[in-house]
Amino acid sequence: MNDFAFSSEFWNWWVIALTLANILACWWLISWTAKKRAGEAASGEVTGHTWDETLQEYNNPLPRWWLWLFYITLVFGLAYLAAYPGLGKFRGFLGWTEESQYEAEMKAAAAKYDPIFARFAQQPIEGLAKDPQAVKVGQRLFLNYCAVCHGSDARGTRGFPNLADDDWLYGGTPEAIKTSILDGRQGMMPAWKDVLGEQGLDEVTEYVLSLSGRASDAAKASAGKVRFQTLCAACHGADATGNPALGAPNLTDGVWLYGGSPGSIRKSIAEGRNGQMPAHRDFLGEDKAHLLAAYVYSLSSSKP
After folding, report:
1. Angle at CA 212, nearest 5°, toward 206 and 213?
2. Going by CATH, does the domain composed of 109-184+280-299 fall within 1.10.760.10?
3. Which one, out of 9, 72, 103, 231, has a CA that is 20 to 30 A from the CA of 25?
4. Helices 174-183 and 281-299, packing angle to 10 deg
5. Which CATH code for domain 188-277?
6. How many CB atoms lie within 10 A of CB 227?
7. Contact call for residues 174 and 304 (beta carbons, < 8 A)
8. Alpha helices per DSSP H over the chain
9. Does residue 134 contact residue 291 with C-beta atoms inside 8 Å?
C-alpha cells in the first residue's frame, strides 16, 4: 500500500471512529448525569447551594420526555449515518449521492421546462424580441447566467460589454448574438509598446482620441495616423470603424470597453487586452440560447 492510500484509509477510519465515539460519549454522558447520586437531595428539595444570601437551587430534574428527546436525537443520528454518507468513505445503505440527486432534479426540470423552451425555439429571434412573455423568460435566464459579468441591467462594466446599446464587437444581428452565447468569443489586442516606443504610443493615442472627435494634439495625431495605418488598420480598418469578424472595436464612436480616458487608451495600445466570453452551448443548449439571444437582442434601442 503506498503512502497516499495508507493516509486516505487512515483518515477514513479516523472520521468513522471519531464520529461514533462522540455519539456514544453523548449517550453515556446523558445516562450518567441522569443517575441519582448518593446523598443527593430528593426531587423538589433544595440542594444546599446558595447564592446572594437567599437564592437557592432546587433539585428539579429534566422532564422524562425531554430526556428521551436526547436519546431519540442520538438514535436518529445513527440511523441517518447508516442511510446516508457521513462516516468516512461509507456511502450509506440507500446509495444516495450528490450526483444522483443533481441528475434527478435536472431530469425533472427538463421534463417540465424543455417543452417551453422548445416552443419558443421554433420562432425567429426577431419575433421573440417583441413577445413580452419570451423576453421575460429570457431575462430570467440572463439574470441567472450572464448578470455576474454584464450586470443585472446588461450595461456591463470595464472589460464586459454593454449589451443595451448599439455597439457590437462581433455584430448585433440575432445570428451573431446567438453564436456569441453558444460558442463564446476570444478577443485579443496585441501589445505594441515594444514596437511603438514611448513617442509612438503618445502619437497613436492622440490619433485614436481624435477619431471620436475629442480634443487632441494635431501634430501628434497626424504622426499617429501614419503609424495606425501601418500597424492597426489590418484589424480596425483603414477608417477605424472596426471589424466584427475579428471582434476589433469601432474606434470612432466613443464607446470604450476598457475605458476611454487618454491613460486607458494608451494602456490598451501599450499592453494589449485579452477578453473571453465563455461558450454556453454544452451548458445551456440550443433552445435556451435562442431565447436568451432574443432577450439580449431586445435590449438595443434600435436593431441592425
Report:
1. 80
2. yes
3. 9
4. 150
5. 1.10.760.10
6. 19
7. no
8. 3-34, 64-83, 98-121, 125-128, 132-145, 147-150, 174-183, 193-211, 218-231, 233-236, 262-271, 281-299
9. yes
Block mean pLDDT (10 aa), the chain, length 304: 71 93 95 78 77 82 88 96 92 92 93 94 95 96 96 94 94 96 95 97 97 95 97 96 95 94 97 95 95 95 49
Q: What are the pLDDT digits (tens) for 24-61?
A: 999 999 988 888 777 766 777 887 788 888 888 888 87
Give pLDDT tens digits for 95-119. 999 999 999 999 999 999 999 999 9
Crossing angle of helices 281-299 and 132-145, rounded to 10°: 120
Instruction: Say how far apart CA 3 and CA 237 lie, in whole Å.
Output: 61
C-alpha cell at 24: 456514544
Q: Tell me how long the chain is.
A: 304
Name residue 56's beta-bridge partners.
50
Please name the amino acid found at residue 216. Answer: S
DSSP bridge pairs for 131: none
From the centroid of its chain, how far is CA 261? 30
Contact 296/236 with Cβ under 8 angstroms? no
What is the dihedral sign for C-alpha 25, 30, 31, 37? positive
Range(s) of the chain covered by CATH 1.10.760.10: 109-184+280-299, 188-277
Q: pTM for the whole thing?
A: 0.73
